[in-house]
Amino acid sequence: MRLTRFRFVLFAGVLALPQLTMAQTPAPASPMALEAEADQRALESALLALRTGQYREALSQAENLASRGNPKAAALAGSIYEQNLIDTATPEAAVRWYRRAVTGGNSDAMLGLARLGMARKGGSTPGEALSMLQRAAANGRKEALAPLGDLFLSGAAGPKDRTRAASIYAQAASYGDADAAYAAGILYADGDPDPMDDPLKAIGYLRQAAQAGRADASADYGLMLYQGRGVARDLKGAAQWFKTAAEGGDLDGAFYWALVNAKGEGTPQNLELAVQWARVAKGSSPDADRLLAQLEAIAAKPKPATSKP
Q1: Residue 14 scores a pLDDT above 70
Q2: Which one-letter DSSP state was computed for residue 104?
Q3: What is the pLDDT averaged over residues 137-144?
Q4: ∠ at Cα 13 (8, 15), nearest 5°?
Q5: DSSP string of 191-257?
Q6: What are phi and psi of 47, to 5 degrees?
Q7: What share of the chain has pLDDT > 70, as a percent?
């Protein structure tokens, strides 16, 4: 009986082999799949034409494909019109194609339509931009966050909401956006009750922006260190960030760097260097002009004669 069972299993296994081979044979592609492949090839052809500078050919292919309902092609056509890559480009045409792509859920088109809406071009408005940026952010487009914060901060699309703007900027900063980090840092440190100042948050965001190379953030981060806001006072650290800001072209940084050199705070006193940077900061603020006048008055005083031995 055991031998019989073995033979039966073996025989069943032999019968199963042709079935396995047949299952691995690919089924004929459906008409829908063939159409999708053709559309993908057409889109790649349009993109190739775009990359090689054949803008009219790219637009023709994109519009032809978009007219058949392809949202990526519609977004491409909108981009060509938005960037004025052809002589007859208009923002109205860009808006028209972007809107068609948005109905297909294309997030590139959402961002493009938002750009035009914020600029009030092609019939789009800041209100539409707000809606597009919110949809793009919900679709995972991190680059939609900072301009969304800008709209809430400016009030261009409705009532100003600085607290919401700060929250959105902070979210963008968490993804590495240094510009958004700087905006959040300022909102949490500028003395306005909307939002309430939070020195700990502010100095963290300003540090992020400063470390990313923003000269203005370097000056403001240095000022927080100088004042001891959100952190123990650090004159040496403040002076270094003032120097970084000044050398990066920030006029406030030039003033602060001149000031600490004049006073010898966080860096050895150096009146000559202080005058040099005070002249760079001239005209940027009344305080900068007063500092320069004081330093030049000191420099103009005759030096006491040294007695001979």
Answers
A1: no
A2: T
A3: 97
A4: 95
A5: S-SSSPP-HHHHHHHHHHHHHTT-HHHHHHHHHHHHHTSSS---HHHHHHHHHHHHHTT-HHHHHHH
A6: -65, -40
A7: 88
Give the whole-angstrom CA distance, residue 75 versus residue 108.
7
Q: Give how far Cα 142 sits from Cα of 109, 125, 139, Å.
A: 15, 21, 9
**195 cis-preceded (ω within 30 degrees of 0):** yes
Per DSSP, the residues of 88-105 read: T--HHHHHHHHHHHHHTT
Assign 158 to helix, strand or coil. Answer: coil
0.85 surpassed by pTM:
no
Taking each continuous run of H as one helix and of E as one strand, the counts in the chain are: 16, 0
pLDDT in tens, 39-94: 899 999 999 999 999 999 999 999 999 999 999 999 999 999 999 999 999 999 99
Rg (CA), the chain: 32
Give the residue from 182, 108, 99 showing the smallest Cα distance to 144.
Answer: 108
CB count in 10 Å sphere of residue 121: 16
**AA identity, residue 144:** A
Of the candidates 96, 97, 75, 93, the one whose C-alpha atom is nearest the C-alpha of residue 84 is: 93
Spatial separation of the C-alpha atoms in residues 33 and 216, rounded to whole Å? 54
Residue with tokens 């900063």: 173
The tokens for 170 are: 């902070």
